[in-house]
Amino acid sequence: MDVAAAILNNVTEAVTPEEVDALAAAPEGSRAYVGYEPSGVLHAGHMLTATKLIELQSVGFEVLVLLADVHAFLNNKGTMEEIQSTAQQMQSQFLAYGLDSSATEFVLGSSFQLERGYTMDLHRLAVETSLPRAHRSMAEIAGETDATVSQAIYPLMQALDIVHLDIDLAIGGTEQRKVHMLARDVLPRLGYDAPTCLHTPLISDLSTGVGKVSSSTGVTLSMDDSTDAIAEKITAAYCPPTAAPPPTEAGEARGHPILELFEYHVFPGWMPWRSTDRRSTVARCASRRTTRSRRRWTMGACTLQMRRPRWRRTWMR
Amino acid sequence: MDVAAAILNNVTEAVTPEEVDALAAAPEGSRAYVGYEPSGVLHAGHMLTATKLIELQSVGFEVLVLLADVHAFLNNKGTMEEIQSTAQQMQSQFLAYGLDSSATEFVLGSSFQLERGYTMDLHRLAVETSLPRAHRSMAEIAGETDATVSQAIYPLMQALDIVHLDIDLAIGGTEQRKVHMLARDVLPRLGYDAPTCLHTPLISDLSTGVGKVSSSTGVTLSMDDSTDAIAEKITAAYCPPTAAPPPTEAGEARGHPILELFEYHVFPGWMPWRSTDRRSTVARCASRRTTRSRRRWTMGACTLQMRRPRWRRTWMR
To answer: Helices marked H in chain B — which ranges?
Structure first.
């Protein structure tokens, strides 16, 4: 198996490709992680990074899932008790999704992020990081809420997690990019290595195509949706007959959530095409159909993927 | 002794006077504190709050001096090792200045500020506090450096110190006012009491009268200055023949450091006048003299105060 290709599959960016090549040369025992705010049921927004972890397990990586309870608290997602209860549920959901229970380490943020050494490192990073930079790095994570001090602490803790969990490869959606670049800049000032990072694509908001799919705003496809509920959401989704939707009248960029679901979730275990070929092919298919028949087809394919995750069985062998 | 008058002597503001009255009614066992960044030798800028602690000891308060090593670190004053070494020296200097060694608790910030419960409280406050508010509250403490995340954490830790050290009366120079008002606003949101606060006046910069005297910028009168060095600094000080110096050409407000030294350091143990009468009397004296003779008089009086702190002996009896 081409390890570097498996690492880079369905990835929008590797920072840096050379560092990924070095990891690919000796993947056994390398540690990869994703941090998730335990904010609800696993949904389509989580799945790309979770799928990436499964891919990495298949090529020998040790995989760690950070159930980032303190981060969720800092991002105003509830009380610690509520968040920790959600974290327990999410751990089960990740295993149900296909992570290998014997080879996945689940770590609750509060189990190490409140220790003396960690807190002192947090203060060290805080001295090294300007407020505007920390604030900017959170723009796509925290949304349009009023900025609080917690949102300046948040990205610094993400940087420190990579060090304190002894991670070789940090993975996140592209909304994590600025935080990871901040980590690469500031960690070396404390004598730590700059982390190697992978960024996965985002699925656009299902209703509008504007922004990313999220459980806190808009519609998402979650792991406890029924087949009927998924069918209904997909049928109602924003799905223009073009692979490159025009921006909104207000000038906001739009993605194509249905094509993205096919590109990143359905096809990877279904068709042998290379990632760069997929979107144009799907777009051609979609544009040749009527809206009504395309919607049925879309719905049918997604339902199939939810029922029969063939790629998962392949990877888990 | 009028306890309320002792508490309020040489104070620019009590928040609130009613809360101070309540403390004055039963001062025994009430806990008062000042936090100091261990940033050098004790100087005229520290002495007003230290004098206030001595006054409070004399009316029955328990007194705590926080040697705020973590705060100094967050304010970029050196490595923790350097800061902690300075903290040890400052403890000796506070005792030499007149604090009662048997009745003063010295606490190093890092002895409790890195504990799990404290850090979790810090995160709670960080969720409740907007970045602009935290930043504004630090304007007079951090100076004109580029804002770092550490400067947003700093005031929140000051607020928490008051709670975690079980303080009834928080004391600081007026540059601490915004931080204390922030603490009064946000601590109740975590279920803690709003602290009662006293603010002491600042001594203006000796060379220019602009801004406060500080060991990190400009000239100060420090505890290890020789009598000759103090004479030299006082002789060279900004000392216009008016109690109300005009602003600079750039519009910056100016104080009168020499009159302030008399008002707050020399006269309290020397003349029985009430605080409000002192400044105008000194100003009248000063304005009647030539620059040359006034300078000699100023120098002599300050040297006398340094050599023979009569008020201290009175208070310590």
So the answer is: 3-8, 17-25, 44-58, 69-74, 80-97, 116-128, 131-137, 139-142, 149-164, 177-186, 227-235, 257-261, 275-288, 291-307, 310-316
Beta-carbon separation of A119 and B120 below 8 A: no
Instruction: Report the predicted TM-score, pTM, of the whole model to 2 decimal places.
Output: 0.82
Q: What angle in degrees, to the nearest 10, is found between the helix axes of A149-164 and B149-164? A: 100
Say how far apart CA B272 and CA B25 lie, in whole Å.
24
- How many beta carbons lie within 10 A of that of residue A107, not counting itself? 18
Flag whether residue A151 sits within 8 Å of chain B, measured between CB atoms. Answer: yes
pLDDT along chain A (317 residues), means of 10: 88 95 94 93 87 92 97 95 95 92 95 98 97 88 79 97 98 94 96 96 90 74 91 93 92 93 78 42 39 35 33 35
Superfamily of domain A3-200: HUPs (3.40.50.620)
Whether the Cβ atoms of residue A256 and residue A210 lie closer than 8 Å to each other: no
Write down the pLDDT at residue B120.
98
Tens digit of each residue's pLDDT (9 = 90 or more) over B176-187? 999 999 999 999
Percent share of chain B, pLDDT over 90: 64
* CB proximity B116 to A under 8 Å: yes
* pLDDT for the residue B257: 92
**Three-class secondary structure assignment of A53-66:** HHHHHHCCCEEEEE
- Report the DSSP beta bridge partners of residue B43: B222
Nearest residue of chain A to residue B128 (CA atoms): A148
Burial of B69 (0-12, 13-18, 19+ CB in 10 A): buried
B146 in reach of chain A (CB within 8 A): yes
Regarding beta strands A31-36 and A169-173, do their DSSP bridges make them parallel or antiparallel, or are they unpaired? parallel
Chain B residue with CA closest to A153: the answer is B149
SS3 state at B133: helix
Domain boundaries of chain A, sorted by first residue: 3-200, 227-316
pLDDT value, residue B280: 44
Q: What is the pLDDT of residue A278?
A: 43
Taking an 8 Å cut-off on Cβ atoms, the answer to whether B115 and A120 are in contact is no
Listing DSSP states for B14-80 in one string gives: EE-HHHHHHHHHS-TT-EEEEEE---SS-BHHHHHHHHHHHHHHHTT-EEEEEE-HHHHHHTT-S-H
